[in-house]
Amino acid sequence: MKRVVFVCVHNSGRSKMAEAFFNQLAQGKEMTATSAGTQPSTGVNPTVVQAMRDVGIDLSRERPRQLTPEMWQQADRVITMGCGVAESCPAGFLVTEDWDLDDPHGQPLEAVRTIRDQVRQRVQQLITELEREE
């Protein structure tokens, strides 16, 4: 089983989208993803919830999680979302990739939809890479 952890500071936007897309697109494969933050927010960004609802994924019941040592120790890949977590991330030395995505915080819905589509594209590429490794 391949395990991926998507990490960002607040775990309220990009990492939540990546986790949801990964687990949806990897159904039936020996892969799973989770997401977490180094300083989790109190809730998922409402604009992110709306943008994901537009593509049939409901994040309204999701809650940001704290990154734990167990999460990154059990991961095959730790991917940061371009939010500068290297300075605040205990898993910084395990990061295999940084996606350098714009932060959806404070962005209008159209901008969040663009970020969402970028996340989905990168997740699809990641799943393809992981399948090749097997």
Relevant terms:
single chain, 134 residues, alpha/beta, Rossmann fold, four-stranded parallel sheet, 4 helices, 37% helix
Number of folding domains? 1
Identify the CATH homologous superfamily: Response regulator
Please state roughly what percent of the residues sit in beta strands, choosing from under 5%, 5-15%, 15-25%, 25-35%, 35-45% or over 45%: 15-25%
Beta strand count: 4
Helix content: 25-40%
Give a structural overview.
The protein has 134 residues and is α/β, with parallel strands linked by helices. The chain has one domain (2-128): Response regulator (Rossmann fold, 3-Layer(aba) Sandwich). It contains four helices and four strands. The protein has helices at 14-25, 46-53, 69-73, 109-133; strands spanning 2-8, 31-37, 77-80, 95-98. A four-stranded parallel β-sheet has the order 2-1-3-4, with helices on one face. α1 links the parallel β1 (2-8) and β2. α1 (14-25) crosses α4 (109-133) and α2 (46-53) crosses α4.
Which helices and strands appear, and what pairs or packs with what?
Layout: E1 2-8, H1 14-25, E2 31-37, H2 46-53, H3 69-73, E3 77-80, E4 95-98, H4 109-133
Parallel strand pairs: 1-2, 1-3, 3-4
Helix pairs in contact: 1-4, 2-4
How would you briefly describe this protein structure?
The chain is of the alpha/beta class and 134 residues long. Helix content is 37%, strand content 16%.
